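S1.2 Input.
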Amino acid sequence: MRYLLIAATAAAGLASGSVYAFDTDKIILCATTEVQDCLVTRGCEQVQPEDVSVPTFMRLNLKKNRIEVGDQSVDIERSEEVENRLIMQGAEDGSENRPDGVGWTLSVSKDTGRFVATLATEQAGLILFGACTEI
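S1.3 Output.
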């Protein structure tokens, strides 16, 4: 489930009502619209978020520096503005059910609200695309 949440983060962006200045007092709702599932042995294929346990929706709580899915959350360990994009990063240890830890990056355009997120394990990766808006 933790991997799910990270993937979700990884996953975030802004829909037509873009956030622009990223008001840190507001929650940003992100929706994953496309996922590429990549394995070292077979390359990448497009899948639905639920096929790889990626939540369709997640919340960016910039005030608390967290990405939230349901009642679970992960810390945004690093955040930086680069060329009108907000770039967030983090890493999570593996668990008993998923021994391979994961590193992730989420890049959200302040102009369009669209996002690209990546999650990387030892031999696999996910690339997520989507959009976000303030709520």
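S1.4 Remarks. DSSP finds one helix and ten strands in the chain.
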